[in-house]
UniProtKB/TrEMBL annotation:
Domain Sporulation transcription regulator WhiA N-terminal residues, every copy: 19-61
Protein name as catalogued: DNA-binding protein WhiA
Taxonomic lineage: Bacteria, Bacillati, Bacillota, Clostridia, Lachnospirales
Keywords tagged on the record: DNA-binding
Domain of life: Bacteria
InterPro entries reported in the protein's UniProt record: Homing_endonucl, Sporu_reg_WhiA_N_dom
Keyword DNA-binding found: yes
GO molecular function, one term: DNA binding
Natural source organism: Candidatus Blautia gallistercoris
Amino acid sequence: MSFSSTVKKELEKHISTARHCKIAEITAILSASGRILQSEKGAFLYIQTENEAVSRKCFTL
């Protein structure tokens, strides 16, 4: 397992209670892995990642 995968797994387990920390984490994930797509049905947030820990963290936040 790579160093970055190990760090991501550790960060997944830590859930901050502070709202500003949660906002910072989700902003970082969206900045690295997210896109906003627009269609005639509206705007959609698309997150693509190869790491399951990052996916789980998005739903937890």
